């Protein structure tokens, strides 16, 4: 259990580091935005410092913003938004991995019944993730045959095909993935509450 405590400490340190980096980046981006919008004198020491040190890092974002039809002055704000989203994703991934390691250690030390519980959790978790990927990619112009999403179609089609024969369609809306997600959650709960040994 000391290892799990160490992982929790690492996750906490990652949260603190990401928060500090995002706050510092927010200060720099707001200052750069103030210079770009002429709210701070473009010839001040702050503006010269930002142009020499920060602008080279913001140039790729600025080019992307301009290509998309945006204003170059909004590049710092887009950079900040990207950093916040990346920080949230990083913290979520670290928390997820720490939780998975702790859960794996707990169930693996519980004997054969714990390993069966762990396998059930992993299988149903993978199927639910595949359903979510399939739903999200159906909203985007991504081919179901793309190597990035094909696995989700392979895993979920045997579940969704029989449900489509039972559940009526509501015009352009397909609610079978929602029903399948809740059925998988219920089935996982039923299997996990069953005593194997």
Write the layout of secondary structure elements.
Layout: H1 2-36, H2 45-53, H3 55-67, H4 75-108, H5 112-138, H6 150-166, H7 176-193
Helix pairs in contact: 1-2, 1-4, 3-4, 4-5, 5-6, 5-7, 6-7
List keywords for this structure.
197 residues; flat; mainly alpha; 7 helices; 2 domains
Describe this structure as you would to a colleague.
This protein is mainly alpha-helical and 197 residues long. The protein folds into two domains: 1-109, no CATH class; 112-197, no CATH class. It has seven helices and no strands. Helix 1 runs antiparallel to helix 4 and helix 3 (55-67) crosses helix 4 (75-108). The longest helix has 35 residues, at 2-36. The protein is flat, with a radius of gyration of 24 Å. The two termini are 24 Å apart. The mean pLDDT is 88.
N-to-C CA distance: 24 Å
Give the low-pLDDT segments: none
The biggest beta sheet reads: none
Radius of gyration: 24 Å
Residue-averaged pLDDT: 88
What is the total number of structural domains? 2
Q: Note the overall shape.
A: flat
β-strand percent reads under 5%
The SSE order reads HHHHHHH
Number of helices: 7
Number of strands: 0
Which bin fits the share of residues in helices?
Answer: over 70%
Structural class, judged by helices and strands? Answer: mainly alpha
């Amino acid at each position: 259990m000391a290892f799990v405590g160490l992982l929790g400490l690492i996750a906490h340190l990652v949260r603190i580091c990401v928060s500090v980096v995002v706050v510092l980046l927010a200060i720099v981006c707001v200052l750069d935005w103030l210079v770009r919008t002429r709210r701070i004198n473009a010839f001040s020491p702050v503006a010269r410092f930002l142009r020499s040190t920060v602008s080279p890092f913001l140039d790729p974002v600025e080019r992307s913003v301009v290509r998309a039809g945006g204003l170059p002055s909004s590049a710092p704000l887009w950079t900040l938004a990207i950093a916040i989203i990346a920080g949230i994703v990083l913290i979520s991934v670290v928390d997820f991995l720490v939780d998975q390691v702790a859960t794996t250690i707990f169930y693996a030390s519980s004997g054969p019944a714990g390993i069966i519980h762990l396998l059930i959790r992993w299988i149903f978790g993978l199927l639910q993730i595949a359903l979510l990927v399939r739903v999200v990619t159906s909203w985007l112009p991504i081919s179901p045959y793309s190597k990035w999403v094909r696995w989700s179609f392979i895993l979920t089609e045997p579940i969704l095909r029989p449900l489509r024969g039972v559940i009526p369609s509501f015009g352009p809306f397909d609610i079978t993935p929602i029903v399948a997600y809740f059925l998988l959650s219920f089935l996982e709960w039923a299997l996990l509450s069953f005593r194997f040994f």
